[in-house]
Fold each of these.
Amino acid sequence: MKKWFLVFVFFYAINNLKSQDLNQSDLVSSCQNFNELNNNILLGSINKNSATMMVKFQLQLINQIYFQIQKFDSNFNKFYFPIQGYNAKAIGGKSGNGYVPAGFDYFDGDKHTGHAAHDIFINDKNQDALDDKTKKPANILAFTGGVVIAMSPNWDSTSTLRGGKYIYVYNPILNIICYYAHCKDIYVKIGDIVKPKQVIATVGRTGLNAFKKRSPTHLHFMILKLDANLYPNPINSYNLLLKSKF
Ligand SMILES: [Zn+2]
């Protein structure tokens, strides 16, 4: 697609939005568009320049709709540890050294390198994706509030994609996107507004490497911070995880 065409579509969409009442279904359809874009980025089927521009446009749209349909809620920005019943001791590595951002770029999709995230492990010796103590799946809680802008509720073991079943939640107030990967079951839909601490999924073993025997059962948790151009750069969430509520 030509750049000028994208710019035209964007400004047309923005102007159109201003002249009508927005509701949840507008949020859902804009998030569905983002999800499709995210799929193309993941599969490497869109070039990086177009993808960068389109991510910016789509997030601006979602942001605008969000602020028109949602009242401000100060609780929306609280931080909760993303696995119920666990705490910072479950974070892999030593003192947060599991976070290796070098080589990571969101726009490299599934081909990214580095590990711009923290792996948070559950007790699951027999690798059945059930917590050894409770014999139940471990709940993934929304680290903070946000809009579900992309997700993959399906995965099968022949897939070569690494994230497995995953969720991206965009917090338009903090300008961050939280990414939860290797889930077992997912309880949210595209366009849902989730509250902090809401159960959004369960910890699983989905994804090319997470499925393998050598991988202990864990949640891959990443935070992307949007810069002034809405470019998603990873940040080290370790201190935020330490400070989060349990
Ligand atoms: Zn990981």
Amino acid sequence: MSTQPYVELTYPFAEPPAHDSYIEVAPGIRWLRFPLPFALNHINLYLLDDGDGWVLVDTGIKSEISYELWRKHFETTLEGRPITRVIGTHFHPDHVGCAEWLVKHWNAEFLTSRTEWLTATMLQSETAINATAFWGEYYRAAGLDDETLRAVATRGENYAERVGQIPRPFTRLADGDQIEIGGRIWHIIIGTGHSPELITLYSAEDRLFISSDQVLPGISPNISVQAPEPYADPLTEFLDSCAKLTALDPETYVLPMHGRPFYRLHERLEELVRHHGERLALTIEACRTPITIVELLPIMFKRKLDFQQTQFAIGEALAHTNHLVVLGDLERIVEPGQPLRFQSSIG
Ligand SMILES: [Zn+2]
């Protein structure tokens, strides 16, 4: 994810809620904020009033800190009413890490899209040794040096650690579905590019949009090529989703999972598209002579990256090079024993 300060968005709240408190962002919608152990240090969760109970959208990462906070919210924020449904917007650990624990505690229904559920199920059953070998190849192809590759190897894959089990059974949400919560109709709009089949919820009547990580203020959603699908073009998918979301009302109030709720959705969408356009132009320029993904990083990301950010950045750089290969602007150079390199096809 990267910082990009062009358009002034309107934020109704200057400060987020404290971790053990909430803010009523719109009638019947409580905004919670949980901590995360990453550079991106928080996630927003939304509790939707459903009369006798609550519907929770996203859960926080699996950790003792999250459980501790949830126990406090059970006593206070829920006002004695149960969580009856938990919606997981996508498979990333910060979004569904506490899902199993919450679903069991409340005997709640779990809803997500089929592909997000399958992806989580696949990742949590992958052994660390298998995953490390697999991802090691991917990082080697990107041009990571041996020392960093060894660090990747000792780190292992930690999806299972951060998520536990994704709840089963689940109820499928699909694009175009409508669900009623507390008398309000929410339209399910599937987003793509950041994750395979990400759930967003839109109330046309109240012009409310729970955007998850599809549209974020201040940072651009991570659009990454992952090891299992090295030739994927998630940037096309993301840009298609941005175009689709311009159909939403311009006055929509956006409730994202990172940053603060904001207005000016259309301007933000334009800005995200422009941001990727600039990155694509930079990439073509940098590829006049053949270049590896790791060599591209300081050109695309002009700040120091920690280890996790480097992982994101490699995936993101590949998303841009793969998109340009699909457009015919770059060529992929594959040589035995060498990292992958990219070169502009235009003089
Ligand atoms: Zn995410």
Amino acid sequence: MENNQLAAQFLLRKDICFLNFGSFGACPKPVFERYQQYQLELEQEPVQFITATGVAYLKNARMALADFLYCNADDLVYVANPSYAVNIVAKNLHLNAGDEILTTNLEYGACDRTWKYYCKKMGAHYVRQPIGLPLTTKAQFVEDFFKGYTNKTKMVFISHLTSSTGLRLPVEDICKRAKELGLLTFVDGAHAPAQVPLNLSTLQADIYTGACHKWMMTPKGSSFLYVNKAQQHWMDPLVISWGYESSSPSHSQFLDYHQTQGTRDFSPFLCIPKAIQFMEDNDWHRVSANCRKMVMDNAPRFTQLMGATPLAPLHEDFIAQLYSIPINSKDPVALYRHLFDHYKIEVPVMVHDDKVFIRYSIQAFNTQADLDRLYVALEEILRERKDLLG
Ligand SMILES: Cc1ncc(COP(=O)(O)O)c(C=O)c1O
């Protein structure tokens, strides 16, 4: 199917030029319909669904996700979002005073905040190692990153794809080096599943979290936490419930603890097999490759328009379906609102430390016309609204 045919598969408003798939994803119709079927089934017989049939569906969905991620289904639990997963890990790590978490200065704000909170509480340090931009090579990145390593470093925490800068980071090399140094590794892969190839067996991160409701296109609130078997024993749940001292324990305490979390609607997780099928039915490898090409083909004219230095070479090592352009804006919030209200373009304007970026995401439903519309809008704003962009 071509992009205009795939666009018809999505529920997104037709009057909006939607260039922000990255923030919250968007569900295709067949996946959303499956979601509503599960919710209906739940409401028709809540007891059976929550205690029996739904539990079986959940196991099935976990197995499908494990196949997709190339890992063991017993090493995966569902969480609502990556923030939740980061909180589980940070709370359980039992940091001592002086311990260090080594990370980059490119991480997602909510995760930074979680780590800062727990580090402050325990007298530990969250080391945001400055990464020189533009990125040059993977080897240089690894070298820059490990300059922050000391004998106090306890864990490496790093994004697979960064949020405001939209960069794909060489987490394979980082995990390998961290292992040689005897460090625990935790990869924040919020944007990775279905945007970049992901094989948790070969990556060998100790801990990995990813969102399914972004690039896998499941309903909101479906994410996962993967923990290597060797680390599962210290991973308590945030919510203690029936899985603790379970009256019918399964073969895995990790699953019991994390999957039994009180009454909740777990329909979003159940849609994972349908979302995987949707991608298979629509030749998603090709769709994704086309999207990456559109991202890269357009990147130079946007950086030129903004007079900006690209954040990384235009190469699959660093760029996938997100592209961030550094901009000068005195009022990023007003710029975002103006793009939406005046031009009906949904595109994030993101502030990271003291820098501002505009980030476009390209997904199956986007066409060249969307990026042309953004380009023309930015040209006009540059010309006429120096208070917003200049
Ligand atoms: C790098 C990164 N980590 C984590 C998240 C997860 O965010 P949340 O838990 O707020 O859904 C995001 C969301 O965009 C992200 O970009």
Amino acid sequence: MNPIEQSDPVLWQAICQEQNRQDSTLELIASENHVSPAVLAAAATPLTNKYAEGYPGKRYYGGCEFIDVIENLARDRAKALFGCDHVNVQPHSGSQANQAVFLAALNPGDTILGLHLDHGGHLTHGKSVNISGRWFKAFHYTLDPKTERIDMAHVQRIARECKPKLIITGASAYPRLWDFAAFAEIAHEVGAVQMADIAHFAGLVATGLHPSPVPHSEFVTTTTHKTLRGPRSGMTMCKADWAKKLDSAVFPGLQGGPLMHIIAAKAAAFGEAQQPAFKTYCEQILKNAKVLAEALMGHGYRLVSGGTDNHLMLVDLRAKSPNLTGAAVELWLQNAGVIVNKNMVPFDTRKAMETSGIRVGTPALTTRGLKEPEMKKVAEWFDRAASSGGDAQVLQKVRDEVTEFTRSYPLPHLTCSGT
Ligand SMILES: Cc1ncc(COP(=O)(O)O)c(C=O)c1O
């Protein structure tokens, strides 16, 4: 019996319900994944008990001799995976990985330039409500209205005008590849440093399936829980000459004690990502995304930029039916057991809580073992639910089929049995 089951039945019930939800639905949220049993186990170890402020060999607490081994493992594996000079594995999240760069390289009031949130960028790339937009003068580049891709001439024009100290590349909802070398050229011209936030496609970079920003960027940040398939967390990489500033930005600049159980889980995930099977997994993510994109377009949906080069795609619902909103479709799909998130499309006339788009991604389904033929089924369920007008009977029929289907693709690890 799990100790939580015995000591705290109320908490246990909610955990089991969440596990059952994950097990019986199709996870299409592009930023989520299912970790391996080893990563899950590492996150649930007594390492959570330990304070270890500082860095390996230089701690403010006693008893860190094994903690040092674990943090060094995570660092060494990350360096080998990405080929970076230096890495700090202590940021608790992707947001803090970015904040560490701001603290290391900027002063309040400095100018930053990143992709606009409404065009796929992230909150932490200068949105006014975020610390990045409140403490810095944030400018944004947008996508070309025709191609819905990044236009480097436009980026260059804005960079020349606003003269940023930091140029941010990377995004949360951009389905195409990034040309980090072209950004570096602009950054050098205007005297900026480049921060590549590869939170979404880090797994693809680690396996050579997406161009690497490491040679071209002073800083590379990432979450560890998306395509990289580790625990919910972050890390920041940098060139050797920024290493000291970065480390003191993370600690003591931003954080106190590192979450050593999560750093152990990162070490486990990075070890897995070094195996040949992880590259096969990432290749399958891309194959699945291509087939899902084609199948959705076959059902009459328009995809932003006409398709995808990575693990995600943005479905513009208006081509299917002008009245469809992302909020309504997200709810209908959820009732049918297909989990997605509403997302603005470039130049959307609807607000963020309504939207005209849905973002979908293949990392989690690929972890469960789904391949190309199953992607066509997923697209069909998506279409039946999105075209249902919210009809409860239609949604229940899809829900029953999805529940039955998921039984053949069990999650990698179950904490609660018999739920
Ligand atoms: C590009 C990008 N950067 C940063 C983050 C922030 O990560 P976290 O939610 O761990 O703070 C995200 C999360 O979705 C992201 O997509």
